[in-house]
Amino acid sequence: MIVQTSKAPARRAPSCGHCPTRRHCLGAGLEGECLRALEDTVEPSAPLRRGETLYQAGEAADCCFVVRSGVFKTCVQSRDGQHHVSGFHYPGEVIGLSACASGRFLESAVALETSTACRLPVADTSRLLALPGGGGVVSSLLRLVGRAERQHLDEHTNLSRNRADQRIAGFLVNLAGRLNVLGRDSRWLPLPMSRTDLANHLGMTLECLSRVLGRLHRCGTIRAERDGIALLDPERLRSLAGHLES
Amino acid sequence: MIVQTSKAPARRAPSCGHCPTRRHCLGAGLEGECLRALEDTVEPSAPLRRGETLYQAGEAADCCFVVRSGVFKTCVQSRDGQHHVSGFHYPGEVIGLSACASGRFLESAVALETSTACRLPVADTSRLLALPGGGGVVSSLLRLVGRAERQHLDEHTNLSRNRADQRIAGFLVNLAGRLNVLGRDSRWLPLPMSRTDLANHLGMTLECLSRVLGRLHRCGTIRAERDGIALLDPERLRSLAGHLES
DNA sequence: CGGGTTGTTGAGCATCCTCAACGCGGGTGG
DNA sequence: CCACCCGCGTTGAGGATGCTCAACAACCCG
């Protein structure tokens, strides 16, 4: 929550043009003045360490963020004190769009490992659009919005399944697909979140998650370790999930 | 799926300036040239009757839609033939954003009663932005995107609850809130969808939904009828849901 | 009026939640 | 360096919730 207000240590240093995730982020397909407009608009954050928050629910905001590196979780606080993990977000994914409606974030974003995110001011689009090439940035943003929408659809479908192993398989398949898009090895899924967070996100108890993972491990479908899961039989997982065109 | 290709029977007839849902839609807060830009951009659909589809999953698209009147449901088709109801959408809500990423809709939208929607081309933002006041339209769109994001957060939280009565109460409270924003009576919730669709959306079986509604009816919390539900004790529903700041 | 779709009710069973104990690992302090 | 503690994850037993299957009732439509 304080991170963004700091005095921009080397603001332009990691420009979009050289960003390793550029191909999967706002900069995808942008050239020339559009790319420059993007670099003039986006403001990379300082690295956040595990557990540090990028923004807090309720905080006033005129921006959203794009994950640049690492992983973030987003949490909403229920009125009754419960808190719910609404998502895990990898490089190239937007978070904080809820602020576009009310001017306040409705969720908090917490880094799950050393991570960075790029701040994108969306409140005054007029300034953004005044830049030459600003239109390209907007259509890039809409592309990311579309991806977020797709992710929501997947998760809604997944959560509505009643059996725990289906939900878990669906989550793993979806995550493998997202990592694949990023050009990473989709057979090894690093899971920097706690089992508690994962269970919460999937709408089940810690114990249930643990049992199902153990079962899948024992029958050779996955290899579950402390810091991640190896997919030994992705096809079997996919049929278990019965999922949509992931 | 054919509706949009028709020869625009009276295209400009119901302009945004006179649209009854303008205050809750893209036109909210727009004046002068921004409003004109909006009217030049948005294309109202012919009225769709119950069961007719606005767009189909897989269909190529360069646009999204804003519900103008009535109610739509959106459905995704699973690979295994199952289909899942991903949402119900009321006036002023955007649907079809998934097309922004891939150029194809990932869900289908079906009218649940006689309904209209406005087509908003988002693929070439350059054309949109070239219009004087086009920036205002873009920020209006982002506001709707933020609302959609909020809705997704609510639904994710709701679906992750394990007890059926909690999910149902949460759904009703959320819907009442959305109708309230539209200036409608939030004590009577018209539910033009079938019980099957509703149960599917809430991640439970038809029988379970029916039983819980019967229970809530018997203890005086709601009055469940064929075509809708009256909220007799909203406060009790809210405490049942234990929901976030709906 | 009759058939079909849609919603309600009932009984039995699988799954998941609750509660509780135990094992493991990392961090701290002696 | 080791012992201890605490957070985190795993395993187990019992009970509640929701799913499956099936019959029945209500409604819409032709």
Give an account of the 3D structure.
The structure is a homodimer of 246-residue chains. Chain A is an alpha+beta fold and 246 residues long. Helices cover 37% and strands 20% of the residues of chain A. Chain A is built from eight helices and eleven strands. The first copy, chain A, has helices at residues 32-41, 99-102, 125-130, 134-159, 164-181, 195-201, 206-218, 234-241, and strands at 43-44, 53-55, 63-69, 72-77, 83-89, 94-95, 108-111, 116-121, 188-190, 222-225, 228-231. In chain A, strands 1-8-3-6 form a four-stranded antiparallel beta sheet. A four-stranded antiparallel beta sheet of chain A has the order 2-7-4-5. In chain A, a hairpin with a 2-residue loop joins strand 10 (222-225) and strand 11. The longest helix of chain A has 26 residues, at 134-159. Chain A starts with 31 loop residues before the first helix and ends in a 5-residue tail after the last helix. Mean pLDDT of chain A is 88; it is low at 1-11. The interface between A and B is large, with 55 and 54 residues. The structure holds a DNA duplex (30 and 30 nucleotides).
